[in-house]
TrEMBL record:
<dbReference type="InterPro" id="IPR013785">
    <property type="entry name" value="Aldolase_TIM"/>
</dbReference>
<comment type="function">
    <text>Nitronate monooxygenase that uses molecular oxygen to catalyze the oxidative denitrification of alkyl nitronates. Acts on propionate 3-nitronate (P3N), the presumed physiological substrate. Probably functions in the detoxification of P3N, a metabolic poison produced by plants and fungi as a defense mechanism.</text>
</comment>
<keyword id="KW-0285">Flavoprotein</keyword>
<keyword id="KW-0288">FMN</keyword>
<dbReference type="GO" id="GO:0000166">
    <property type="term" value="F:nucleotide binding"/>
</dbReference>
<keyword id="KW-0216">Detoxification</keyword>
<dbReference type="Pfam" id="PF03060">
    <property type="entry name" value="NMO"/>
</dbReference>
<keyword id="KW-0503">Monooxygenase</keyword>
<protein>
    <recommendedName>
        <fullName>Probable nitronate monooxygenase</fullName>
    </recommendedName>
</protein>
<keyword id="KW-0547">Nucleotide-binding</keyword>
<dbReference type="InterPro" id="IPR004136">
    <property type="entry name" value="NMO"/>
</dbReference>
<comment type="similarity">
    <text>Belongs to the nitronate monooxygenase family. NMO class I subfamily.</text>
</comment>
<keyword id="KW-0560">Oxidoreductase</keyword>
<dbReference type="GO" id="GO:0009636">
    <property type="term" value="P:response to toxic substance"/>
</dbReference>
<dbReference type="GO" id="GO:0018580">
    <property type="term" value="F:nitronate monooxygenase activity"/>
</dbReference>
Amino acid sequence: MWNHTEVTRQLKIQYPIIQAPMAGSTTPELVSAVSNGGGLGSIGAGYYSPEKLAEDIRNTKAITDQPFSVNLFVPEYNEVTSTQIDRMKEILTPYYEEFNIEPDMPTIDKDDTFDQLVQIIIDENIKICSFTFGIPDPVTVKKLKKAGVTLIGCATTVDEAILNEQAGMDMVVAQGFEAGGHRGSFVQTALRSSVGTMSLVPQIKDKVTIPVIAAGGIMDGRGLYAGLKLGADAAQMGTAFLTTKESAAPKIHKEAILNSTEADTVLTRSFSGKYARGIRNRFIDEMDWHQEDILPYPFQNQMTKKIRSKAAAEGKSDILHLWSGQSVRLSRDVEAGELLMDIVNQVNKILRNENYHK
């Protein structure tokens, strides 16, 4: 019974398949389709206001009675100088002019938005919460655990996985280098790590006692089964669900993934100030000349936000962040529920073939 794992037992789901919490691309329809199909849907609430999170949770609950999770970005507070901001404004000016928009000046408010999001998770009786970009403070961990919430951390190295377990996370995502979107790295030595999923999963499995979730380049039943064989208790898939009908990714983003190859994705800090994997385009190529001037997250993200919004609205994929994992040739334009069942059927077929050849 390949689908009976510690993750499925603890999360009360049928299959060890988790839809990655892709901030900006998840919808109640996507989350509920995965959960209704027996996997775990995830609301990517990294950029949400408290009002938006409450709305998405309630809309998701209206179309599924199955478990789903909410993902939050752990706040971080970097510093920049006005000189650095002015320099990046100068570099981005051609793009502002191309779209005839005024630049946004970045600010970082140490407000209580994160705490409000955590409280909404508790108030709305959400029982699964995952984190990206670090580990929440002990007070937050204690508060969520007291409310009976299962906590899922993210690690890109063994050391990060150990820190997650020590901090009280109940599970940890082992995010390989192949993964699309932002790297979950938060320890300085891991920021430039390039450990692949197949290497990372068994090494983390040997060093922690909590369940491990394989992530990065997994798109189908073969990848899921490989992750399970390596010691993972589930697989988390992002790019696979990014091109589904229910995804909120812009049409040009989906088309770029569906028409790309494994050699087209690169890691870049150009859009947000954090390393993220996406499809190479003009913006990435041009910003490669200015790597020394890239602002740390979230400042770079704020300064490019308006540019990216206009690019999406006007269908200019050469300037848009096209997050994608390396296994782009395996992407499909299907409904999320159909994709999930195909993954399940593929694993069952693999097992039948193995049993036949014994």
